[in-house]
Amino acid sequence: MLGSESVSIIIKKNKAAKAKKNQQGVKEDRHNLYAASVQCPEADVEFFKKTFKSHTGRPLRSIREDFCGTAALCAEWVKDHEHNHALGVDIDRPTLTWGRENIFPYLTEDEQSRIELKCEDVRKVIDPKVELLCAQNFSYWIFTEREEMLRYFQTARQSITDDGLFVMDLMGGTESTEVDVQTRKITDGVRPDGSKIPAFSYLWDQNSYNPITGKMSCYIHFKMRGGKKMNRAFEYHWRVWTLPEINELLLEAGFKGVDVYTEGWDDETDETDGVFRMRKDFDHEGSWIAYVVAKP
Ligand SMILES: C[S@@+](CC[C@H](N)C(=O)[O-])C[C@H]1O[C@@H](n2cnc3c(N)ncnc32)[C@H](O)[C@@H]1O
Fold this sequence. Notes:
It is built from 8 helices and 12 strands. By secondary structure, the protein is an alpha/beta fold. It folds into 2 domains: 97 residues, no CATH class; 186 residues, Rossmann fold (3-Layer(aba) Sandwich). Strands 3-2-1-4-5-12-10-11 form an 8-stranded mixed beta sheet, sandwiched between helices. It has a 4-stranded antiparallel beta sheet with strand order 6-7-8-9, covered by helices on one side. α3 crosses α4. It is globular, with a radius of gyration of 19 Å. The chain starts with a helix and ends with a strand. The N terminus is likely disordered. The site of S-adenosylmethionine has 16 residues, from β2.
């Protein structure tokens, strides 16, 4: 009979084989395409610095990135200041290794020495304590039961300093649970070495939503110039959580207060203005992204 470790290795191998099959001859690495179309670590870094300074009056120096994947945000953080430190936590070793092999070589030795990566379940790590812990790109929605989410928030509470912050993003809006595929053309993507990625399309596939359980399955596909497609390059099976539910769970986990920040609207460009401000109410239209900031 197979032990649980052997079963988990087989599952991981099957997953890797499935991801490879889905690439259908696309040569570009899926992590490079993901970084170019989904991530903006520079914006997160600016938000973290500004928010921490306004809460504590001092500069932020240590962060922990939960569900860090390739640790792109950790890399951005240590580049931003010579005294900055980052801890990245992710349960998937191959993804952490990809970051180590493909992103870290473009950091200086000193920058690399200020990043620590842990291959672990985020609910099992409480040390070293950091000034700001973050969970970006809705990754914590993997916890679909109230008890699981509460346990994660309790761990987060124990993992930050007395005046630290726990920051996560949350998406919502009238379109956020619609079954739909949105396509965006990406023309400005670059690889970690600075070389340009040829234009491609990013497809965000909100594939199914069950209004009874709140469970949602989403996929990311990429379509390259010439028509080659990388199907289901990434997949997510989440529960959709709302701001009041998250707020209540954070207070239950021991946080004393929760602030919500969203962007404003620019009437001239007819787009969001890119500036996140603390709000008590905002228009629930289309789809929006908020930063949730929990304070001990
Ligand atoms: C959507 S990716 C997030 C990547 C990155 N945070 C970002 O902003 O784009 C989700 C990551 O969560 C990791 N993950 C899932 N469950 C986890 C857990 N319980 N503990 C640690 N990492 C986990 C996966 O391995 C995956 O790399």
